[in-house]
């Protein structure tokens, strides 16, 4: 027998030597071929089997197992028998042979128990746990792995402990027991750091972060991702997977700056690597970011891409997110009919996913092995698994009476099963009808809500238009009527000859003032009503600010002289990018306001300068100033006016128009004032075309 064994091992050795590229395997094979002592051959065979198993050469390892098993049995070498049986089971597991693998693990476990080898018992339990979980027997798998962990934690077998912790964490994660999964992933991470196993560390960190996000502990998820980024061992592929997730976590805090930074990095990496799954996540997160930033055109294009990609990849999770984002986008755009359709698609897909999860939960529950057919968990922990005692069944079927009783019992059980089945079917149908009714009710509620939103928007618009109409009639009937009536009165007196030439000349300044007020009033009124009707469209160009000041100052020179007010022009030649005609309206209104609230001897100063790449123009006066209470009323949609220093009237719309026109040109307007000292109005305008999203 020894000669046959030696010839067989030599044959395998030479074949393996020609094919293998691993020096240690070749060395062990040569050493085995020339050993004479049987016990040493078994020991060397075990080392060679382990090396081949670790190298993935399972068929070759199995050949050595078979021959070594024969030799160890012949020698009655118990320790070797247990280890060879264990490795044979590991190989069967790798080859997908569940029956032989689980049978071999049980046999090796019994052999290790006889040797009182608790460490190897723990390793076998860990292997059984991994195999049972892989087959869907989660309860039994968890029991064996927990037993393994209890013993492995007191050893330095960090590789086995890492495997056990990871198996427990994955199983609890699959069973949606999030806290336990986090606990074991954290333990596995500590062991992986001891092993310097960077590959497993990356995988575990990803799962930890995802679980924190699932628990809505977004800060912890961000912390895990940020720590991963600081690691030098993170590959380009890992970064491509990480950036979209980290950007998504920042998005939940409305931290748009960090979200944008990481999402753009993720976009660039994944579009180059053609990683479609992560690219889909990036697209959905970017579209959500752009919706929040009101960049709706870009968001809609990105959502069109993400929707098509999610359907092609059959990624229901991201497709669900796509439907919700499309609903939000169309709601913002007031396309409520389309928003309702997206909402309906969301509910349909979400219901289908929940049904699938319920079905899976049922499968998991039914796949767990009956407690009565297993040794209890406590007995597993104590490693004293009693073997079931099988009692022989007495042959009583020859007795007709007993046979009739059994037959009657059988039909009774069948009847009971029929009743229970009917009841369960009835309950199932009733539950389905209830779910269907609830879903229809929810859909109707959503539709009604969307219709109510549309109705409220329409009502607000009608109220706004009605307010505009009321203001127009109020101003026309009061201020414009007064100014025109005054002018008409002068004309009637002149026509009737009731005024002498000297009296007429004395009244000319007042007549001119009334005509100017009526003109400015009508000018502001028309522009204000246009802006309220949302029909103003700026046509920006580059123009010289100094020219605008010169033109508008010339228009009010006569009024400045008649009121005894000085004007100082500190304007410089500089350009702004805006609609010139609109800015002329703004400057004219600001100069008219400064003139209105200045007294004899006061000074109006116009100037402009550059600040942070923008053009800032200002109109300052040393007039009566504005109180803090009145400053809060400026630039509002509601009209607010006060009497000028010469009892000049106004519409209270001038500054509202100025604000509308400045903001239409991507600018800002504000005022600084001290009561009794004077006021300065500032307008900031861009110098170039603003970049569009």
Automatic annotation (TrEMBL):
The lineage of its organism: Bacteria, Pseudomonadati, Bacteroidota, Flavobacteriia, Flavobacteriales. Keywords: ATP-binding, Kinase, Membrane, Nucleotide-binding, Phosphoprotein, Signal, TPR repeat, Transferase, Transmembrane, Transmembrane helix, Two-component regulatory system. Residues 1-20 form the signal peptide. GO terms for molecular function: ATP binding; phosphorelay response regulator activity; phosphorelay sensor kinase activity; protein kinase activator activity. It catalyses: ATP + protein L-histidine = ADP + protein N-phospho-L-histidine. TPR repeats lie at residues 162-195. One of its GO terms (biological process) is osmosensory signaling via phosphorelay pathway. It comes from the Bacteria. Residues 475-689 form the Histidine kinase domain. Pfam families: HATPase_c, HisKA, TPR_12. This is histidine kinase. It is an enzyme of class 2 (transferase). SMART domains: HATPase_c, HisKA, TPR. The keyword Nucleotide-binding applies. The chain crosses the membrane at residues 408-429. Its EC number is 2.7.13.3.
């Amino acid at each position: 027998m020894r000669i046959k064994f030696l010839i067989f091992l030599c044959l395998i050795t030479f074949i393996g030597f020609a094919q293998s590229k691993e020096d240690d395997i070749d060395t062990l094979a040569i050493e085995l071929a020339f050993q004479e002592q049987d016990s040493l051959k078994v020991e060397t065979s075990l080392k060679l089997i382990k090396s081949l198993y670790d190298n993935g050469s399972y068929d070759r390892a199995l050949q050595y197992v078979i021959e070594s098993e024969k030799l160890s049995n012949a020698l009655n070498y118990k320790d070797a028998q247990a280890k060879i049986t264990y490795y044979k089971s590991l190989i069967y597991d790798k080859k997908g042979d569940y029956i032989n693998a689980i049978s071999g693990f049980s046999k090796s476990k019994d052999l290790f128990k006889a040797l009182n080898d608790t460490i190897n018992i723990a390793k076998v339990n860990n292997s059984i746990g991994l195999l049972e979980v892989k087959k869907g027997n989660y309860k039994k798998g968890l029991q064996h792995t927990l037993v393994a962990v209890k013993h492995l934690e007191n050893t330095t077998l960090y590789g086995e402990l890492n495997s056990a912790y990871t198996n427990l964490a994955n199983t609890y994660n699959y069973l949606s027991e999030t806290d336990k999964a986090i606990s074991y992933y954290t333990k596995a991470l500590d062991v992986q750091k001891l092993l310097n196993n960077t590959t497993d560390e990356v995988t575990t960190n990803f799962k930890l972060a995802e679980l924190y996000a699932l628990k809505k502990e977004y800060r912890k998820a961000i912390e895990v991702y940020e720590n991963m980024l600081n690691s030098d061992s993170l590959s380009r592929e890992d970064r491509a997977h990480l950036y979209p997730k980290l950007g998504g976590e920042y998005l939940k805090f409305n931290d748009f700056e960090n979200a944008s930074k990481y999402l753009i990095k993720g976009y660039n990496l994944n579009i180059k690597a053609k990683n479609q799954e992560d690219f889909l996540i990036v697209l959905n997160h970017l579209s959500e970011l752009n919706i929040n930033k009101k960049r709706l055109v870009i968001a809609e294009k990105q959502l069109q891409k993400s929707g098509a990609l999610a359907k092609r990849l059959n990624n229901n999770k991201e497709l669900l997110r796509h439907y919700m984002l499309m609903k939000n986008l169309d709601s913002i755009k007031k396309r409520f009919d389309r928003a309702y359709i997206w909402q309906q698609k969301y509910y349909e897909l979400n219901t289908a996913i929940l049904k699938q999860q319920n079905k899976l939960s049922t499968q998991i529950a039914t796949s767990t092995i009956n407690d009565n057919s297993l040794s209890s968990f406590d007995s597993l922990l104590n490693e004293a698994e009693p073997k079931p005692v099988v009692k022989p069944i007495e042959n009583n079927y020859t007795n007709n009476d007993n046979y009739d009783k059994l037959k009657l019992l059988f039909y009774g059980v069948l009847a009971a099963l029929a009743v229970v089945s009917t009841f369960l079917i009835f309950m199932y149908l009733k539950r389905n009808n209830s779910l269907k009714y609830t879903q229809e009710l929810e859909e109707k509620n959503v539709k009604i809500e969307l219709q109510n939103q549309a109705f409220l928007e329409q009502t607000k618009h009608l109220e706004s238009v009605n307010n505009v109409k009321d203001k127009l009639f109020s101003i026309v009937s009061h201020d414009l009527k007064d100014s025109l009536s005054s002018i008409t009165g002068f004309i009637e007196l002149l026509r009737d000859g009731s005024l002498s030439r000297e009296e007429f000349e004395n009244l000319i300044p007042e007549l001119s003032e009334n005509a100017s007020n009526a003109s400015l009033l009508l000018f502001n009124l028309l522009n204000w009503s246009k802006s309220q009707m949302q029909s103003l469209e700026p046509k920006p160009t580059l123009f010289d600010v100094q020219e605008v000041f010169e033109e508008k100052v010339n228009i009010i020179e006569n009024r400045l002289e008649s009121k005894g007010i000085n004007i100082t022009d500190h304007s410089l030649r500089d350009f702004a990018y805006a609609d010139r005609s609109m800015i002329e309206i703004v400057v004219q209104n600001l100069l008219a306001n400064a003139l209105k609230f200045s007294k004899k001897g006061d000074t109006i100063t116009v100037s402009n300068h550059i600040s942070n790449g923008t053009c800032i123009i200002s109109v300052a006066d040393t007039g009566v100033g504005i109180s803090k209470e009145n400053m809060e009323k400026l630039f509002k949609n509601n009209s607010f006016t006060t009497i000028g220093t010469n009892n000049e009237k106004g519409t209270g719309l001038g500054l509202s128009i100025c604000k509308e026109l400045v903001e239409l040109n991507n600018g800002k307007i504000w005022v600084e004032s001290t009561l009794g000292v004077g006021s300065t109005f500032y307008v900031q305008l861009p110098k170039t075309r603003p970049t569009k999203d």
